[in-house]
Specification:
With about 725 residues, the chain is mainly beta. It is about 10% helix and about 30% strand. It is built from eight helices and 44 strands. Helix 3 crosses helix 6. The longest helix has 13 residues. It is globular, with a radius of gyration of 24 Å. The two termini are about 20 Å apart.
Length: about 725
């Protein structure tokens, strides 16, 4: 790869905020050209409907084998990418692994500008938002940790009249102390008229920030409305929680993105689980509006209808991706509908206006909890169609047979687990099977829908994980502080679940104590910040993970109180069910791409997605792998998807049959969702290639970077002139 244009640094200071840096080339971004010079990918998901579909057909089944690399932009950074770029007016906007925002000429990859907030961030940042007043005011909204910046789309400079010196602070306007909150925008929100409608990621353990959905004025940054996903006294749904949940609990947040019916003025908001994720005795009830799809009036935030996918979630079954606004044919009628895929492998489909299910939904009895104090929901909803797109029962028949030794080991381990299918509450002292795993089933890459055929495309992980509970501990020592605040993700043994959750073993050789302390306070990657820990408590945790030092240490409040454990039982950590060689301990496929006819609810086709190169070399090909990032579908008859963690391939499939038509190797695995667009009569397909999510055993070093790669047909084949 080669780096694009050398850049110059320009420093822009703003009162009361950190130094803001806009780095740009000497050429401005092009002004809006004549209509139809290019066709765009103007928002995350391709547009507000989130169907990831393009009517471009220059690249098609007949010629896709001729695709070649058109350009590469290398940010020069490491850390991985989950970003889907947007393309407006011939300019591509995206972010780097450290959350710098940049603009490129979409036809050539020529660098135009980069915005550096001065804050180094890491982890998911899936894209940016674009707004214009229809005239000269054109803005890109970019998230960096707790802040959302408004940037001039032509220069990358912050717009000082927006918010506080060019940015808004998502920790504010929650009814709680902003310096003790942790809200990060990992997925772009939706632009509706002059509103930015945003969700955000919060901590999944307690204490946690509430998951309010908020709308801000796109010009000024002023808050316009809020919807409380944990209802306050007097609001509908308040009685589905414990009395003080609105003050004490958190979560029920919309982190995966939203969809907008602009004509009707309805925004569709998926929400995640309540905090704490795995034990809910202090939030008795079904917990509306966690794990729900909300239809809100986009102008006012008023609730129009809702559906809850998981009642009283104690499995971390967030809605993992934006819903898709679709139009289907059913019983001779055309229906505007909304589809939502879930982590546990279902697609729920509703009438977009009324919320009426398109296919019947059954409420089935599920097992009760055996954990003291926990009251699980008696029933959970199951759609009768479509059938699940991921396996849900771990049986001896679905255990690996990769080698006799691996199978014997896996069968022995299976006998130790609590394993009765979906919605089995976790237990104390014993691991419970979660299948599909904690990352799905469906995941954050999103799904694609073809309005011409009614086919819905969803990629899935098909791995089993396990989880369990243990009695909580008093946080009076460094180890106790770690177990209360960190072990739910990084585990008691510090091993984590790489690559999703980093191992802390040997962290002192990788980071200084000051760097670790900053991460604990402010967060990094998928880890939220812990601003409520005192300096002394934070130092004790840092010492413990760095060198194992355990000593008396309190998180003393300003009033001199030591907080008791917030819940009596804690999660013991996310664990993948892997065999001794590090491969999934279930039978393949370990990842799939599925095509579902939503007109009928029938499966059109299913194929394994991805492979392990070293297994393929031994004859075990097409196993499928874990995959993160989603598909797009085009009028050219193609489904484009990268996503696979270990083979680093970008592929095009026949959308009607699933046949592989083209593939190319990327510099790193492509864990973002691609975008397609046209500039100057030439169609491009662009993908972020950042890697970093492979497992170290099968992807040494889990190599990561920050590259964007665009593909197109040769100019002679595309019959387009050279772009100057």
């Amino acid at each position: 790869m080669k780096r694009t244009a050398t850049v110059l640094a320009i420093f822009v200071a703003a009162a009361s905020v950190p130094i803001l840096r806009a780095v740009r080339s000497t050429q401005p971004a092009p002004s809006r050209p004549l209509a139809n010079v290019h066709r765009e990918w103007a928002a995350y998901g391709g547009g507000p409907e989130q169907i990831r579909y393009s009517r471009l057909d220059q690249i098609n089944r007949a010629n896709v084998k001729q695709l070649e690399q058109a350009w590469v932009y290398d940010s020069g950074e490491t850390g991985g990418l989950q970003t889907q770029p947007i393309v407006v007016d011939g300019v591509l906007y995206a972010v780097t692994p450290t959350h710098k925002t940049f603009a490129l000429r979409a036809a050539t990859g020529e660098h135009l500008w980069t915005f550096d907030s001065g804050t180094r961030a890491q982890g998911p940042n899936r894209g940016v938002m674009y707004w214009t007043d229809g005239g000269n005011d054109r803005r890109v909204y970019a998230a960096v940790t707790r802040y959302v910046y408004a940037l001039d789309a032509r220069t990358g400079k912050p717009i000082p009249t927006f918010g506080d010196g060019g940015r808004i602070d998502l920790n504010r306007d929650l009814g709680r102390d902003p310096e003790r909150q942790s809200v990060v925008l990992t997925t772009p929100g939706v632009v509706h008229k002059d509103l930015l409608i945003l969700g955000g990621r919060v901590s999944e353990g307690l204490p946690s920030s509430p998951g309010d959905v908020r709308a801000y004025n796109a010009r000024t940054g002023a808050l316009q409305w809020s919807f409380h996903t944990i209802p306050h006294p007097g609001e509908a749904g308040y009685d589905t929680w414990s009395k003080e949940s609105w003050r004490e609990n958190g979560g029920a947040n919309s982190w995966p993105g939203m969809a907008l019916d602009a004509a009707r003025g309805i925004i569709y908001v998926p929400t995640g689980s309540a905090a704490a994720d795995f034990y809910g005795a202090n939030r008795v009830g079904d917990n509306l509006y966690a794990n729900s799809l909300l239809a809100l009036n986009a102008d006012t935030g008023k609730l129009l209808w809702h559906f809850q996918f998981v009642r009283h979630d104690i499995w971390d079954r967030d809605a993992p991706a934006p819903p898709n606004l679709i139009t289907i044919r059913r019983d001779g009628k055309t229906i505007d509908a909304v589809a939502q895929a879930t982590k546990h492998g279902y697609v729920f489909v509703f009438d977009r206006v009324t919320g009426t299910p398109i296919y019947p939904i059954e409420y089935r009895k599920v097992p009760p909890s055996t954990v003291p104090g926990e009251v699980a929901a008696e029933t959970q909803p199951f759609p009768t169609r479509p059938a699940p797109f991921a396996r849900q029962d771990l049986t001896p028949e679905t255990i690996t047979s990769r080698t006799p030794e691996a199978r014997a080991w896996a069968l022995s381990e299976l006998a130790k687990f609590h394993n009765e299918g979906l919605f089995v509450p976790l237990s104390v002292g014993r691991q419970t099977v979660i299948f599909p795993g904690f990352d799905g089933g469906a995941e954050w890459g999103g799904q694609a829908f073809d309005p011409d055929t009614g086919i819905y495309y969803v990629n899935a992980n098909d791995l089993a994980w396990t989880g369990g509970l243990a009695p909580a501990v008093e946080a009076g020592t460094a180890r106790g502080l770690y177990q209360q605040n960190c072990a739910a993700c990084h585990r008691d043994d510090l091993q984590g679940t790489p690559p999703q959750i980093a191992s802390l073993v040997g962290i002192a050789q990788r980071k200084t104590k000051a760097e670790i302390s900053a991460i604990v306070e402010k967060g990094a990657g998928r880890m939220p910040g812990f601003p409520y820990l005192s300096g002394a408590a934070r130092a004790a945790v840092v010492d413990f993970v760095s060198d194992g030092t355990d000593r008396p240490a309190d998180n003393i409040s300003p009033a001199g109180n030591r907080p008791a454990p917030l819940v009596p039982y804690r999660f013991t950590g996310y664990r993948k069910f892997l065999d001794p060689d590090g491969y999934p301990a279930v039978a393949p496929p370990w990842g799939t791409l599925n095509a579902i006819n939503l007109n009928t609810g029938d499966l059109a086709w299913r194929i394994p997605l991805g492979e392990y190169p070293e297994l393929a070399a031994k004859g075990l090909a097409n196993t499928g792998t874990e995959n993160y990032g989603g598909p797009i579908v085009t009028a050219g008859g193609l489904v484009f998807i990268a996503a696979t963690n270990f083979d680093r391939k970008f592929r095009a499939f026949d959308k009607a049959t699933g046949a592989l038509l083209w593939e190319a190797a990327l510099p790193f695995s492509g864990n973002g969702t691609p975008a397609t667009y046209e500039v100057g009569g030439r169609q491009y397909v662009a993908i972020a290639a950042g890697g970093g999510k492979g497992g170290a055993r099968h992807d040494p070093g889990s190599a990561s970077g920050g590259a964007y790669v665009a593909f197109a047909l040769p100019r002679q084949s595309a019959q387009v002139p050279e772009v100057k």
